[in-house]
Amino acid sequence: MEQTKTKSLVAVGNRRTEPLFALSPQEVHSxxxxxxxxxxxxxxxxxxxxxxxTTHRRIINDKAxxxxxxxxxxxxxxxxxxxxxxxxxxxxxxxxxxxYRLAFDKALMGNAFLEVVTDxxxxxxSLFHQDAATCRIARDSQHVLLHHNWNQFKEEEARQLPLYPxxxxxxxxSLRTMIHYKEYEPMFTHYGVPKYIxxxxxxxxxxxxxxxxxxxxxxxxxxxxxxMLDASTxxxxxxxxxxxxxxxxxxxxxGQVMFVIREGGESDNSxxxxxxxxxxxxxxxxxxxxxxxxxxxxxxxRSLSGLDYSAGFSAERILHEYEVAxxxxxxxxxxxxxxxxxxxxxxxxxxxxxxxxxxNRPPTRSKPIYMKVWEARKxxxxxxxxxxxxxxxxxxxxxxxNVTKIN
Length: 407
Prior knowledge:
Strand content: 5-15%
Number of helices: 10
Order of helices and strands: HHEHHEEEEEEEHEHEEHHEHH
Number of strands: 12
Radius of gyration: 29 Å
Largest sheet: 4 strands, antiparallel
């Protein structure tokens, strides 16, 4: 096998200390970058939605985890490759960590950004994931602008890096470039669109039905209604006092009961008129339908999202759906994310990445690890030979071999 030239790789640090500020009403207009969404705040909106919809967030987490795999296998005769897999940058992040964050951003926002750092002699190589929410494409479409808060954009606070394959020298003497991953969508040129775009509405429905259940719990499942109060008031302050006193006495939770004050007579005819609701079944069906639609919009599978465990744990179904997901989603995403990284490793650091492969492993196994290979083949109805030396290995030994290759 061809040996890699002897070279020392020194990972360098990166400047990423600014926090992501909260969304505020202010809108910034500038001709320095292409807006991401009508108000340039689409990444913020997508991130906020993912924090509010449980199923939506679970699918994004799981897709990123499956795409990043369980680590990497590689030729142990390539020491530079092994070092780079274990430490992809000066912050101590492994290549698997960088890959997971890229996969997460791409699944969440349809875009991901990877910063590549080297020097003029190509004696160093570092890969940094950059939060996609902090990145915008410059007007020349050849650079990326990074800013910690796009709601209050200031040009002097932004950092500009070229898009690969362009490298530009920075103030610290390093050469840097950015790789932009994006999901293809017709009519969108500068930014990608997440695959679940058609499911944003149902994600909002799932969030609102959750809020409805929380509201019922906060109100101790008391009925909403109208409280008719007989009272005479001489001022708005007196009216406010009566309403507050009634809230403390009857409402249980402010906003649960609407109060109507009318001029009182000789007798007190105050009464509570409940507004009964019989739509619990409708709300439950709406939530279930929204959840199913979210899974479909993500091009994902229910058993891999933890949705059907309550109906019984079916290892066979999980394995079947994982196999389908592996061949329709996971492998394609892995190839898209890793292809530029392997090219960078080869061109910049002269590292041979031909043996570098992501280790994919299903979330469960259908056969115990104490079976032998020939026993497993027999159980699957395949041809087997008890005397074949290669089929005498235990499944646990095969699993152990794979584990030792992971870094």
